Each structure stands twice: as structure tokens, then as C-alpha cells.
Amino acid sequence: MKQPLKFFFIDPLWKDNQILIAILGICSALAVTIKIEVALTMALSVSFVTAFSSFFVSLIRKFTPDNVRMIAQLVIISSFVIVVDQFLKAYFYEMSKTLSVFVGLIITNCLVMGRAESMAKNVQPIPAFLDGLSAGMGYGYVIIAVGSIREFFGFGTLFGYRIIPEAWYATADHPDRYVNFGLMPMAPAAFFIIGIFIWITNIINERRSPT
Amino acid sequence: MESSEQRHNLRTILFVIVLCLISSIILSLLATALRDPQQKERELDRSKQMLIAAALLSYDGSFLIQEKPAQWNPEKQILIPSATKIKATQDAILTLHKIRIRSRLVDEEGNIYTFEELNIDEEKYVEEHEKSGYAQLKYKLLFEIMPNLSPEQITAETFPEGYIFPVNGFGLWDAIFGYLAVSNDADTVIGGTWYDQAETAGLGTEIASPKWQEQFPGKLIFAESADGKTDFEKSPLGLTVIKGNVSEVLGTSPKAKNSLDGISGASMTGKGVSEAYLESLTPYRAFLIKARQRFEERSAQ
Asked: Which own/partner pairs from B261-264 qualify as long-range (CB within 8 Å, at least 24 positions apart)?
């Protein structure tokens, strides 16, 4: 597959977006999109893991015996996830407490394995790295968008900064004022929002190239 | 088996071994290199959790005096009231912790000792017994909360504001560790935290959320009897997680003061928490009785 290097980077951002088109990596989107800060940390972690694991899977692709191919990919992916986990525990302890098990669950994220299996083992290391990096970034901007909606409507803040003024909120004296959208911090909200995003994506793609 | 097949299998095994070896070496080196920063973060978190339980630090990271925002004064080394919430720095937190939280050892009869008096190395003691808990030991770990005074003014005779008990038990999946801060009247709860737990995300992990922990201040660890009196010698000791909301289920009954709101979907975790309080506090009964006596003597003055 000979294509200019830049397409390896551009395609997963929209054309082959892992969440919106390939519908992969949705599971983690439920818990890590409650607030933007959490979603951002997760996006960076997934991008890091996918980029570097794709790079190394591609690097050893000529030596990897076919019957242990997937296990080898898992070893490499797990190693990088542990790197992220250890790093967070050392320098971003509060965030690692918030993300808790979900960092470890990046290993099971179909997105990472998907890139390794469908791209990294077939192409050279540098294209594989770019593909992994942008697959992670494509995943990243979608979960950050979901996170913005959930944080704004569920908490009235964005990235921790209060947007909806305290004064607007309902109190015991004024029960008819604004109340945070209670569904937003809950998991189903993420599902609905991602579903709507995929729907919009399909509409846009349909308009651009009607089938 | 053909020789080429044998060779292939050998190659595969060799590949796997080399891959795992390289991976393990890199990860071990990384873990060793990051061990110190991780240890520092854990200790900082531990100190934070203790200060939060003692109502000296708010959940969003600013100091408190009597529930009002405060800031650290480095010259006098005390907390002074502040008009707005100011985020506490790491150094201030650690220094405050060192000054205001005093670690002590308590025996079965309720006598208090310092680590030096008993010739026990605190670090070794903590390392050895942290995972298994302190309540069943001969000399049990306890923390005294010192009042808001400069270090020079705090002496061995300074009357504590309260006490922090390390509590531990077993949740649904794994061990749980926390702190319970009790006022110097040996009965009223100041606050409680759970700093180490591996419960189900969104369900059992609620015990570590500020929202659930907000109900702690004002609870009582000794069960009041119907006539409003508390028999410190015999009454049950601890906090119980009930099914449903305390205000709805128990209303104004005396039991409400010893009960905590249940978390729907996390009844096993709740049971573990109740048991943890019971098992961790009961061995300190003699100490609590003596502390109560000291409190009553002091109030009578």
C-alpha cells in the first residue's frame, strides 16, 4: 500500500475516525467523558499507547511468528499502558485516582489492537506511528467533545472553570431556577451523545458522497 | 515432527522469551525509577486524606478553620482565616500535617504512648502493619489532632482537638483503608475518608466521593440509648451503612446518628464499611472511655 506519508496521519482523523466510522473504542467513552480534564488525559494516554505500540509492532513485524502475532501485540500494548499508568501515579496522582481502572483498560480498547492488527503489522514503522497517533487523536477529539457536553450540562463547568454562574442555580428559596442536567454524569448520556455524533457524521458523509 | 516445524517452534519460543524479557526489563527499570515520586505522591495523598477527615482541608484543596476558608501563614506556622478559597500548596499541606497531626500508640487499657517511649520505629511499624491493620495489635496506632497553634506553643500537655483512627476492612473486591476523625469528646465524628479501595466504579467507589462523605460530620460512634444517655462501656461502637437514606428510614431516631446512607447497588461495599468501622474502633474502647473522662474533667473546669 503505497500512499503519501501524510495520508497515514490525516485519514484516521475523519475519514477513518475510529469512534465515528469504525465504531471502536466506545466502551471507555462512558466513564472517561464525565469531565473534559479526564477525557483529555485519556485521549493523550490512548494516543501515546496507540502510536508507540503501532511503531514497535511494525518494527518487529518481519520477525513475528504468525501464530503468536496477537499475543505479541498484546505484550507491546500492555507494556505501554503500564508505562502510562506508572507515569500518572508518579506525577498526576489525583488524575490517576480519577481514572483508576480505566487506564489499565486501554489494553482492552479495541481501537489499539485494531490499529495494530489492520495497519501496523502491514506497513513500515513511521507510517504506523503516524497512523496510531492520529487514530488516538481522532478518538481524542470525539471524547473531548462528548466530555464538554457532559461537563457543561451536567456540572455547569468547562475544564473545571465555572461557566454557568452559581447565582443562576435553584436553591431552597427559589426552586424554579436552573438545575444541572442529572442524566449527564451517568453512563447512558455518553451513549446517547456518541450515537448522535455518529448520526451527524453519517449525514455529513452522505451529503458529501451520496451512495 | 519435521525438522523445519521444529525449527519454527523453536523460533517462536525464542521470540516470545526475548519479547517478554525486553518488556519486563524496561518496565522494571521504569518502575524503579518512578518509585520515589510515586511514594511521595502516595504519602501526600495520605496526609491530605487525614487532613480532610479532620476537617482541616477541603475536598477542593483549600485549608479550613471551622468549615470556613483559611490559608497557611508560614511565619507563625498556623492557619489564619482568609476571605476566599486559596489552594493549599504541597509544602504547606505536609508542614501542617507534621505540626498538627501527632502519631501515638494506644494499648488495650487505653494508655497513650509516644513511639519513642516504647522504642518502636514508626516507619517500620507502619510499613509492617499498614496492610493488615492496627486495631488488633498490642500497641495500636492513633493520631491526635492538635489545635491551631504555632509549633512552639504545642507541648506534650496540649489538649487535642480530636483523634484520627486508621480504619480498615474488606469491601466487595479488595481491602479498604480509611481514616475516621472523632472530636475530643470521644463520640462526635468530625469527618471520614476512604483513601484506598478497589470497589466497583460508580457504585462502591462512592465511599470515596466527597458527596457521600459529607454526611459524616456530626455522627456519633457510640450508640445512644432511647433515653438519650450513652453507656460508653457497653454500647455498640461504630458507624453502620444502612439500606436507603438515613433521613428517610430512621428520621429522628437516635440510631440515625450512628448510621450512614446506603449506596444503591453497593450493598456489599456498605456491609464491608460497617464491619470495618466496628472491627477497627472496638479495640480502642478503653482509650475512648479514658478520652471521654479527660474531656468531661476539662469541661467541668
From this structure: B261/B212, B261/B215, B263/B203, B263/B204, B263/B206, B263/B207, B263/B212
d(CA A27, CA A106): 10
Whole-prediction pTM value? 0.77
Question: What's the CA gap between B148 and B158, in Å, rounded?
Answer: 11
pLDDT computed for residue A2 by the predictor: 57
Q: What is the ipTM of this complex?
A: 0.77
B12 CB neighbours in chain A (<8 A) are 65, 67-68
Count of CB atoms situated within 10 Å of the CB of A82: 19
| Lookup result for grid cell 500518572 | A88
Q: Measured between beta carbons, which residues in chain B are less than 8 angstroms from residue A75?
A: 19-20, 23
Q: Which helix (H) or strand (E) holds A98?
A: helix A93-99
Cβ pair A100:B205 closer than 8 A: yes
Are A97 and B37 within 8 A, CB to CB? no
B104-140 burial string, b = 16+ CB within 10 Å, else e? Answer: bbbeeeeebeebeeeeeeeeebeeebeeebbbebebb
Predicted confidence (pLDDT) per residue in A152-185, tens digit: 988 888 887 888 887 787 777 777 788 888 888 8
Whether A101 sits inside 8 A of B23 (CB atoms) is: no
